[in-house]
Amino acid sequence: MQQISFLCAFAVCVLLCGMLLPLLKKLKAGQEILEYVTEHSSKRGTPTMGGIAFIITITLLSAIFCNWSNRATAVTVAVFFAYGVVGFLDDFIKIRYKRNMGLHAYQKIIVQLAIAVLVSIFVRGEVSIGDKLRIPFTDITVNIGFWIIPLVIFIYLACTNSVNLTDGIDGLATSTTICFLAGMIALLNREKRLLDAMGDTLAYRQTNDIVTLCYISIGALAAFLLFNSNDAKVFMGDTGSLALGAMVACVAIFTRMSLFIPMVGLMFVVSSVSVIMQVVYFKATKGKRIFLMAPFHHHLQKKHWSETRICVLYSVITVCITFVLMCFGE
Fold first, then answer.
1. Beta strands in 109-262 (DSSP E)
2. Cα–Cα distance for residue pair 282/288, rounded to 1 Å
3. Which of 45, 82, 191, 225 has the fewest CB atoms within 10 Å around its CB?
4. How does 231-249 read in b/e, with b if 16+ C-beta sit within 10 Å?
5. Do the Cβ atoms of 39 and 249 come closer than 8 Å?
6. Is residue 138 part of a domain?
7. Of 77, 249, 292, nearest in space to 163 by CA
8. Strand 132-134 relative to strand 141-143: parallel, antiparallel, unpaired?
9. 62 touches 251 (CB < 8 A)
10. Contact 173/166 with Cβ under 8 angstroms?
11. Helix axes 201-228, 2-26, angle to 10 degrees
12. Residue 111's pLDDT is what?
């Protein structure tokens, strides 16, 4: 059934992308390019907000293949969609006023924070999740009490903004997220066996539902990648990247696998940390830089790496880390 959900998601998203692309062109929903990213000057005017296609696909097919009576699944889809709406507003303002900046940073943070706070409260009160965390490389689960709330809030803000930063070249955020979700499927299938052996039926069903959602998401993103790989015919925009960041966070948090994000999602971490390091070092040294340009994928571009090569690097690293985690779990 999960494999069928993947195929259906792929087919539906291909259809939606094919319908959406001419509509975005007709509406002149072109991406404004930052002037200092000279490598992307030729991409000015490429349709954006393509994330609408996979957001609709994942939302609709989750209603068919997932059990929405499972509250964690319903909340995952709702949060995924809500962050997508925030991104849509950001993209719409950029297009409407023909500029690269949409919502002000503080406006996005306030809305993202509000959603994250609500979800953290839900997590603490949900029996199948609660304050439990799985420890990587072990079969140990620990309780962290109240600290689950600030941790969940931090994860949502970190994931949404990290995936957003990773969405800097054709197909990078899409391919890296596909590999992340595939890695989580592998880890969660092992987790399901442990939960089944422990007799934790509620958590087992919830994890199985999240795995199905991952299959749907991978199918939709694989279809979108056909249009988003270099040279991209459409960008996902903040509409897609914020939604994907929320999906990354939900999949891990709602299965008690939050501590696996920095490992399986290492390349998202690299995007954020490289920006932080660049800004701090630039201010501390009054103008010097660690990287030729941040995030790190732009540094590689300045080193004359092709966009396709960068995507392959990020994907391979994500897959290798998942393999290592699986080996330690045996």
1. 132-134, 141-143
2. 5
3. 45
4. ebbbbbbbbbbbbbbbbbb
5. no
6. yes
7. 249
8. antiparallel
9. no
10. yes
11. 40
12. 95
pLDDT tens column, 55-101:
999 999 999 999 988 899 999 999 999 999 999 999 998 888 776 67
User: 178: closest CA among 24, 4, 10, 43?
Assistant: 10
CA–CA separation, 311 and 320 (whole Å) = 14
Q: What is the pLDDT of residue 31?
A: 62
**Is 301 domain-assigned?**
no
C-alpha–C-alpha distance, residues 90 and 100, integer Å:
10
Q: Sign of the CA dihedral 55, 58, 64, 67? A: negative
Amino acid at 205: R
> Cβ(33)–Cβ(41) under 8 Å?
yes
Q: Please say whether the beta carbons of 53 and 13 come within 8 A.
A: yes
Using an 8 Å Cβ cutoff, are 164 and 241 in contact? yes
Confidence of residue 241 (pLDDT cuts 50, 70, 90): very high
Beta strands in 155-240 (DSSP E): none
DSSP character at residue 277: H
Q: Provide the pLDDT confidence category of residue 34 given band limits of 50, 70 and 90.
A: low
Looking at the 3D structure of the chain, how many domains does it have?
1
Provide the percentage of residues in the chain whose pLDDT is more than 70.
Answer: 95
DSSP string, 103-145: S-HHHHHHHHHHHHHHHHHHHHH-TTTTTEEEPTTSS-EEE-G
> Would you say residue 290 lies in a domain?
no
Work out the average pLDDT over 256-265: 96
Residue with tokens 């795995």: 211
Residue 231 in domain: yes
Q: Which two three-digit tokens encode residue 107?
A: 């406006």
What is the chain's length?
Answer: 330
What does the block give as tokens for 70? 């499972």
Q: Specify the residue for token string 């609500």.
A: 118
Q: What does the alpha-carbon distance between residue 182 and residue 266 come to, in Å, rounded to a whole number?
A: 14
Could you tell me the residue range of the domain that residue 34 belongs to? 2-261
pLDDT of 300 strictly over 80: yes
Collapsing DSSP to helix, strand or coil, 47 comes out as strand
Sign of CA dihedral 224, 230, 233, 238: positive
pLDDT band (50, 70, 90) for residue 214: very high
